[in-house]
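hey so i finally got around to running the thing on that chain from the lab meeting. sorry it took forever, my laptop kept dying and i had to restart like 3 times. anyway pasting the input first so we r on the same page abt which one it is
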Amino acid sequence: MFHARKVLWRTICSGSSRQLHVCIVGSGPAGFYTAEKMLKANKEAEIDIIDRLPTPFGLVRSGVAPDHPETKIVINQFTRVATNERSSFIGNVSLGSSISLLDLRNIYHVVVLAYGAESDRSFGIPGEDLLGIHSAREFVWWYNGHPDCHKLAPDLRSTDTAVVLGQGNVALDVARILLRPPEQLASTDIAEHALVSLQESSIRKVFLVGRRGPVQAACTAKELREILGIKGLHVHIKEADMLKTPRDEEELKKSRTQKRVFELLSNAATSPRSHPVPGQRELHFVFFRRPERFLHVDGSNHVSGVQLEKTFLQEDNSSGRRYAVGTGQFEELECGLVLKSIGYKSIPVEGLPFDHNRGVVPNTRGRVLSDTSDQAALEKGLYVVGWLKRGPTGIIATNLYCAEETVASISEDLEQGILPSTRDSKPGRKGLLELLNQRNVRYVPFSGWEKIDLKEKDEGSLRNKPREKITSWEELQNAASG
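ok and heres what got predicted. didnt touch it at all, straight out
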């Protein structure tokens, strides 16, 4: 690690004082796409991508399901960006503790925040703190070996039933991981602790609960087709839930994606099927229900079920949108595991304007606004991209177009003289590394990640896996410096 830092230090000393120094906080798809577009847009830009983790690639590493290796191929593209002579990755640097936003704005001409959403929305209903209730994000990080969640240890052995609240792609991901035969996961990059737990799992029934109907299901056809295609899986959907209203028909005509999803659900609901045999894995779609409270047995602090309220769709006259309204009718669904998949939430940092209701940074085309009521009140030199900019929506490729827009705003501001001139003294990478060294921050350069990468692949090859992820902070740091 010492040698790697010396190389990085020699590199910074050869840079031109006229360079545009850019710092991108967050090394997921939004961050890397922004870096890639910035390198092309400005030949004088020197770009540093920092991340709180010792590993780059964000949700491509910790969010994409292990049985979707094709989605992770984008890592090759991001690696080319990280190894470009005008860019660098500096990991294990946490915004807010290792370094402040004010520090970065003093050091760089441009700061782009791309650190995504690392918290969860909550229902705010009784019993939400019971044992056995986890967010889908935590569960995904657990089976993907994220160092924050490697000790999560969800109990998959004490119950045969799991309830997943939500019907988006993440909900389908966690349901699929619970229902797919574990031998099909053994040759993926799933974390070893998760594979062992799934091999010992007693879960045989998963209920996917949505507050709206099948027409409004938030997943994509590809994800839905995959889970419906699990061999030997018994799928149950009430045919009554598939009845469409004239308003539903209008909605389906406007969206090809929704139409395809509805057709898949409709086919699954009407296909001939027998009753599930003992031990068979089951997937139940539950529509028009929302959780009212989480249940537990007296004397226990572990979840034993969910009380659901039946809903119907009501139209907002002003917006034309339909939303779920409770009917006052309730039913209970027994379970021993609940996974809440109702959305990720971004976390603000000191000195950053933040819209707590929407969970985003107020911005106009990526330019951070200091006053939401005044579109001209800009935080000069400060930009945002990805989920912090638009909310936790879209797929990996969505971040490409999001990054293009933010980089276009940066380029416009440079041309119009809104940004600090490159003649203004900004130390950039040199200043960042000096500050990190002063504070004894054990940062990890890209060469450190390459050591982690090599070790994981070597360990994986012994188990016929693409990699065996290192899952603890200490082991990751040690591997990076090894």
